From TrEMBL:
Keyword annotations: Isomerase
SUPFAM superfamilies: UDP-Glycosyltransferase/glycogen phosphorylase
UniProt EC number: 5.1.3.14
Domain UDP-N-acetylglucosamine 2-epimerase: 23-349
InterPro entries with a match to the protein in the record: UDP_GlcNAc_Epimerase_2_dom (IPR003331), WecB-like (IPR029767)
Alphabetical list of Pfam families matching this protein: Epimerase_2
Protein encoded by which gene: wecB
Highest taxon of the lineage: Bacteria
Entry similarity comment: Belongs to the UDP-N-acetylglucosamine 2-epimerase family.
Protein name in the entry: UDP-N-acetylglucosamine 2-epimerase (Non-hydrolyzing)
Length: 351
């Protein structure tokens, strides 16, 4: 069996790591195509190095652009790649423009497509990620869903026959990295953080960064939290803050560059809270049992909210209030699986 993975953005490298590892373990031929959607070393190369992912076999180098330009550039480059490799499966991950372009190029060439992290829905049709998910799910032949909720969404759209629940590969990699963390104290010292008293924040989604009034309300709210907040600034956030003339530091808020994955895991594990609009970080916080405040009107990861570990908050005093709340009751629920999702993915692809 020959699998060709299409990845391009930070969260996809995290999901790729356990899949690449499982392919290696089973002796399955695995071609990695990096679209180049993310090109900053801290959003890309560092994940390959730290997570032991083999170098990409193909790098398309498309870079940034509007949705149409970026998606189109990947699409235009993929025909030749797929023609050359003729894989048994084209595997696409998550919900970025790289996901949709990978799926679209494969479907046109009649190559079987598997979508990892299928069935997620925010039901917010203004999100680019929602367009990418819905279109990719309907183009794919095999839908690898992380949760029962995702399976239910796929069934509601008539896709039950093509769906398999495999668990969440992000849990696989998170557990492995947490086990290997040698000295969390040293990581925190390097980051200038004291154990337990801070929150980790990330904000990068278009709906939060692109409207100056909304971004300003978010930054003010982060500055008013009653304990130190460390904002790990995605390049999009820095670009938009500078465009809107916003200072990201002040009050309780300090800003620094994004972290390598093991450092992020150490920081979230030690933190008293997470404040984010990232999908992956909501789950990582839950798995590490760090309370999360999500600056969005809805979440795809509803289990984290239902179990009391995640609160949705609109920019303003609600963010500071949610971020200061006490930790919820402990739970041993594992809605995202127990770290065996990559094996289930390979089983499903082999079947
Ligand atoms: C993309 C995904 C989003 C995912 C996120 C993870 C889409 C539609 N969005 O958003 O779902 O959660 O990745 O980070 O695919 N930039 C850099 N260096 C880089 C990459 C981007 O400076 O390496 C800047 C550029 O100004 C660029 C902007 O960030 O225009 C946005 O990047 P883009 O890849 O379009 O989307 P993300 O916001 O990263």
């Amino acid at each position: 069996m020959k699998i060709l993975s299409v990845v391009g953005a930070r969260p996809q490298f995290v999901k790729l790591a356990p899949v690449a590892d499982e392919c290696r373990r089973r002796g399955v031929e695995h071609v990695i195509v990096h679209t180049g959607q993310h090109y900053d070393p801290m959003l890309s190369d560092v994940f390959f190095t730290d997570l032991g992912i083999p170098d990409p076999d193909v790098h398309l180098g498309v870079g940034s652009g509007t949705h149409g330009v970026q998606t189109g550039a990947i699409l235009g480059a993929m025909d030749a790649v797929l023609d050359e490799h003729r894989p048994d499966w084209v595997l696409v991950y998550g919900d970025t423009n790289s996901t949709l372009a990978g799926a679209l190029s494969a479907v046109k060439l009649h190559l079987p497509i598997a979508h990892l992290e299928a069935g997620l829905r925010s039901f917010n049709r203004r999100m680019p990620e929602e367009h990418n998910r819905v279109l990719t799910d309907h183009a794919a032949d095999l839908l690898l869903a992380p949760t029962q909720v995702a399976m239910d969404h796929l069934a509601a759209e008539g896709l039950a026959q093509r769906s398999v629940q495999v668990g969440d590969v992000m849990v696989d990699v998170l557990m492995l990295v947490r086990e290997r963390l040698a000295d969390t104290g040293a990581v925190l010292e390097r980051l200038g953080l004291s154990n337990g008293g801070f929150s980790v924040a990330t904000i990068h989604r278009a709906e939060n960064t692109d409207d100056p009034a909304r971004l300003s309300a978010i930054v003010t709210a982060l500055q008013e939290v009653d304990h130190p907040v460390v904002l790990l600034a995605h390049p999009r956030l820095r670009a938009k803050a500078s465009e809107h003339g916003l200072d990201l530091n002040g009050g309780s808020l300090t800003t620094r560059d994004p972290l390598a994955y093991p450092d992020l895991v150490a920081a979230v594990d030690a933190a008293r809270g997470v404040i984010t609009d990232s999908g992956g970080l909501q789950k990582e916080a839950f798995v590490l049992r760090t309370p999360c405040t999500t600056v969005r009107t809805e979440t795809e990861w509803v289990e984290t909210v239902e179990l009391g570990w995640n609160v949705l908050a609109e920019p303003g005093p609600a963010v500071a209030a949610a971020a200061s709340r006490p930790a919820p009751a402990p739970t041993d629920a594992a809605p995202y699986g127990t770290g065996t999702a990559a094996a289930a993915v390979l089983d499903a692809l082999t079947r």
